[in-house]
Amino acid sequence: MAETGETAQTQLIYGRDDRPSFGPSLLAAFAHLFAIVASILTAPLLIARAIGLDVDSTQYVISASLVVSGIATFIQTYRIGPIGSGLLAVQGTSFAFIGTMAYAAAQLPPETSQDELLGILLGTAAVGGGLVIALSFFLKSVAKVITPTVTGVTIFLLGLSLLWSALNNSWRVFANASVGDTPYLAMEWLLTLITIAALATRKNLYARLVSVPAGLFGGMLLAAVLRDWAPLPTPTADPLFFLEVLPVSLDFSFLVLLILLPIFLVSFTETIGDITATSLVSGQPVEGKTYFSRLRGGVLGDGFNTVLASMFGAFPNTTFSQNNAVIRLTGIASRQVGYVLALLLIVLGSIPWVSSLIVTIPGSVLNAVTAFLFSMIAYTGFNMVRDRAQRRGLLVLTIACVGSLLLLGVPALLASLDITIPPYAAILLGFPVASGALLAIIADQSMA
């Protein structure tokens, strides 16, 4: 099959192997940074809060996530041996693991210490990254089972579960506030949400790229005006942040792996789509040997970078899709921009003040941001399903949603009948994303 690239390749100002001067490289790198920095900062913060890490550990995770994102972006862009796509592909902590990490942490014994909890989650994530590495050599076989329809259904269920969590968190913020502060918190929540939604729905790519940072800034500014809120970063004696190798002892839980596995599989297929889109907007082949080699390298890079993140105390990494819009916007697909961006992420993560500032974001503002992002995740999943084989995709979605909800009551029903089921099965039935993904696979395969 002939290797073909994007027909608009001539519209690129700088192609994959071009070397723009320092000025254009830095400006393009900052454009990418604005597109993803809010996600890179928010995802580890939410996971840390969801699993109950203290302030010091949360700050470490945030700083480590930025530095690891820089290292992972360099690996993915430069391509070290077979690892990496060799394209301007940006890596960061995946939002998909927020709900699953929280659910997995809740299944561990109550007496589990914070370090033990973190060690189990990171160690199991490293095993999951290893599975992704192994699966990168069986791309076509996995794609036959984890189809776009299955991926869309899982993303939809994941988005709904995360959105429900974000709304519950918002409600708790309002419920725990004083009577005088409640209207102000509601105004901050609404302003943040409206700002992001207004910018994210514009046709102008610049507006969409700055939507989340603008929403965060607007919400925090209103909090400062209404409630005299002020960011008070935790003082630290260390002028610079340095990664630690194995900050906690890694451990493994088969139960946690079962909970995380559907998300790893979804992330696997999403990466295939993201790398394909990056190839397309970069004027590179989207079929043939070169494309397949880059695709395998990109998926392998995702798995390797997840293992690397676990070794340094950060959560699973994945390839971000929003940076494809930046390539379209700037017309710059040069890998050199990726190297500069990687350096910017490492420098940003090496400043302790950044992570200590992030943990002070008002709950009203943060929960508004996450509510929007998670609703977009659900919307993305729904669109993926709706676009597949007309009614077939929606039928699979309906079966998965209804079936996963019905399965929630199975453990209680069996217990009332004095029927015992394995604890692992009961826990998995209680997680609709996992049970829904399994039902989607069965339904999709039966209709093929």
Name the descriptors.
mainly alpha, disordered N terminus
Structural account:
By secondary structure, this protein is an all-alpha fold. It folds into 2 domains: 11-178 and 233-361, no CATH class; 389-448, no CATH class. 71% of the residues lie in helices and 1% in strands. It contains 19 helices and 2 strands. The chain has helices spanning 22-50, 55-78, 97-107, 114-135, 139-145, 148-176, 182-200, 205-209, 211-227, 254-281, 289-311, 323-330, 335-349, 352-358, 363-386, 391-408, 410-416, 423-429, 432-447; strands at residues 91-93, 317-319. A two-stranded antiparallel sheet has the order 1-2. The radius of gyration is 22 Å and the shape is globular.
How do you describe this structure in short?
The protein has 448 residues and is mostly helical.
Low-confidence stretches: 1-10
Helix content: over 70%
Main sheet overview? 2 strands, antiparallel
Number of domains: 2
What is the CA-based Rg, rounded? 22 Å
Strand order of the largest sheet: 1-2
Structure classification: mainly alpha
SSE topology string = HHEHHHHHHHHHEHHHHHHHH
The coarse silhouette is globular
Number of helices: 19
What average pLDDT do the residues reach?
A: 87
**How many β-strand stretches?**
2
Chain-wise SSE layout:
Blueprint: H1 22-50, H2 55-78, E1 91-93, H3 97-107, H4 114-135, H5 139-145, H6 148-176, H7 182-200, H8 205-209, H9 211-227, H10 254-281, H11 289-311, E2 317-319, H12 323-330, H13 335-349, H14 352-358, H15 363-386, H16 391-408, H17 410-416, H18 423-429, H19 432-447
Helix pairs in contact: 1-2, 1-3, 1-12, 1-13, 2-11, 2-13, 2-14, 3-10, 4-10, 4-11, 6-7, 6-10, 6-15, 6-16, 6-19, 7-9, 7-15, 9-15, 10-11, 10-12, 10-19, 15-16, 16-19
